[in-house]
Every structure is written in C-alpha cells, then in structure tokens.
Amino acid sequence: MGQVNVLDHPLIQHKLTYIRDYRTGTKAFRELVDEVATLMAFEITRNLPLEEIEVETPVCTAKAYQLAGKKLGIIPILRAGLGMVDGMLNLIPAAKVGHVGLYRDPETLKPVEYYCKLPSDIQERELIVVDPMLATGGSASAALTLLKQKGAVNMKLMCLIAAPEGVEQIKEDHPDVDIYLGALDEKLNDHGYIVPGLGDAGDRLFGTK
Ligand code: PRP
Ligand code: URA
C-alpha cells in the first residue's frame, strides 16, 4: 500500500501559509511555489541510493559518495504543475522533464487529457509526478494511469495541498504510488475545491481569470 507523507518541515509550513493567503499576488505566489517545490524535492530525495567512490582532494585520496541507482524524471501535470518544475530542477538538474496535459472539466470534475510528451526512457526512471493540488484525485489518478500505460513502473506523487478524498482515490487506484504532501487539508467543497486550500492554483500561478 502506498504511503502518505506530509512533509511538515517548518519552512514548508511557513511558506504554504503565504501561498494560501488570498492577498498574495501572482509574482510572490509563483516564487513561493518554486521555493516550496525545492524544499519538498529535498525531502523526497532523502532516501536516494548512494555508492561509494574515491575522490582526490588537494590533500589525499578519500572515500566519498555519489548518487547511484535509477535516474530521475519530473512529470508536471499541466498547467499548474509547471510552477513546481524549476524549484525541483534546482536540486536535481539532471532530471528529465515530461509533460502530461490534463484539465478538470468544471461541470463534471472529470479530467480531460490534451497533451503528453515524455522522455523516451521513462520505464528506466524514477518519476516524480507533480501538481500543486490533489482535490478529487481524478487528474493525478488519470496521469498516473497514462504514465503506467506508457511504461512507467516507479512513481511518486508530490502535491502542495491535498484533500482526504484525493488521497483516498490515489490509494485506491494506485496503491503502488507513495504520496508526498505539503499539507493534508480538511475537505472538498461543493465545487470540488480544497478547503481551506489556496483557490485555483493555475489561475494564481499564471494570473489568469
Ligand atoms: C487543477 C490542479 C489539478 C486538478 C486537481 O488543475 O492543478 O491538476 O485541478 O483537481 P482534481 O484532483 O479534482 O482532479 P485544473 O484542472 O484547474 O487545470 P490547470 O492546471 O490548467 O489550471
Ligand atoms: N484545483 C485547484 O486549483 N484548486 C482546488 O482547490 C481544486 C482543484
């Protein structure tokens, strides 16, 4: 069964507060999402495997460590997931980035796919699927299903804020996928928005609406 991890580092919680605040404008919102994505990437990569190597320092030969194991891939769910990519690449610049385009139909709340472009070797990569919001879970679940159909075998899901309903949906549909959250909120409202949440992540990131 996939694990649910709330990354409650004080810096993540502090920045999330300003991300939630309706008075935070587009520029600051974008910068804060970027920063939180970096902090979450730091936490999510904590258990990456290492291998021992030798390094020549100016003084002597020393035992040291470098990353080993699978290469990484970052998969933002368009469009709001884009806001988390650069922050993650700050820490893992060699990761390849694939894009899955999905929007949530405002009437049915069902995800509609419109774009998919992935690294050719996703089956060999450890993928981190990113989207600020996990609400009903429909979009993330559809993205994970699509990625599995394209060959992905090793995935994590990383979101800033989730509703319990979305977490349950992912656990049911994708029990093999661990979930990493900045915060687990109270519920969804009648329009499928996370309460208290942050509003519409895509609109706040890109200044639309
Ligand atoms: C938002 C968000 C998620 C989805 C979450 O995207 O970024 O992708 O809704 O809702 P769900 O869990 O109920 O599927 P939206 O559809 O607003 O598209 P956008 O990123 O293009 O704004
Ligand atoms: N999508 C968002 O951007 N915000 C929500 O609260 C739910 C879905």
Automatic annotation (TrEMBL):
Listed EC numbers: 2.4.2.9
Annotated residues for binding of uracil: 194, 199-201
Activity regulation (record text): Allosterically activated by GTP.
UniProt binding sites for 5-phospho-alpha-D-ribose 1-diphosphate: 79, 104, 131-139, 200
Catalysed reactions listed for this entry: UMP + diphosphate = 5-phospho-alpha-D-ribose 1-diphosphate + uracil
Keyword ATP-binding set for record: no
Record-level Gene Ontology MF annotations: uracil phosphoribosyltransferase activity
Enzyme type, top EC level: transferase
Pathway connected to this protein: Pyrimidine metabolism; UMP biosynthesis via salvage pathway; UMP from uracil: step 1/1
Cofactor: Mg(2+)
Phosphoribosyltransferase domain location: 6-208
Cofactor remark: Binds 1 Mg(2+) ion per subunit. The magnesium is bound as Mg-PRPP.
Alphabetical list of Gene3D superfamilies matching this protein: 3.40.50.2020
Keyword field: Allosteric enzyme, Glycosyltransferase, GTP-binding, Magnesium, Nucleotide-binding, Transferase
One Pfam entry name: UPRTase
Similarity field: Belongs to the UPRTase family.
NCBIfam families: PRK00129.1, upp
Purpose: Catalyzes the conversion of uracil and 5-phospho-alpha-D-ribose 1-diphosphate (PRPP) to UMP and diphosphate.
Protein name (database record): Uracil phosphoribosyltransferase
Organism of origin: Scopulibacillus cellulosilyticus
